[in-house]
């Protein structure tokens, strides 16, 4: 994003630290899942993760958050960065958004990369339901990557059938988990 400072919501969010964001994108670069992809950033806050993906070649990014301050900050950041043609901001509960995706997956527009950076106080069951929605048939593309950021004190997410974890790393108080759509042979599909 060219070193630009993003607008952050006045309260109610926990921005991803620069160190964690750099580590996430280093891994995603290595996995080759950023160029020409469809990205969903859930609990987006300022939109930093999704906007970083857009700046690294994502074709389309959707930012979803229910907090008014977060939505206003994300919209301001999209405008400032000139990304309105490829980034959409959705104001509403993540759970409602993912339930709609699972019920009616977008035809021909499966997701290649999903970020989940929920509030640390989101219940394990709440996170598990969002992950189940993402694992529904037709939501994720083969080779997609799901990135979950949680408190290092929280348990590993309860991965539903359809999602297979393939790595995690702790950075101080933050733990980052990676998962992908499950395949019959257990191999990572080509992006």
From TrEMBL:
The UniProt keywords, alphabetically, are:
Methyltransferase, Transferase
Q: Where is the signal peptide?
A: none
Cite a single Pfam family from the UniProt record.
Cons_hypoth95
Q: What is its EC number?
A: 2.1.1.171
Q: What class of enzyme is it?
A: transferase
Listed InterPro entries = RNA_MeTrfase_RsmD, SAM-dependent_MTases_sf
Q: Name one GO molecular function term.
A: 16S rRNA (guanine(966)-N(2))-methyltransferase activity
Protein name per Swiss-Prot or TrEMBL: 16S rRNA (Guanine(966)-N(2))-methyltransferase RsmD
Gene that encodes it:
rsmD
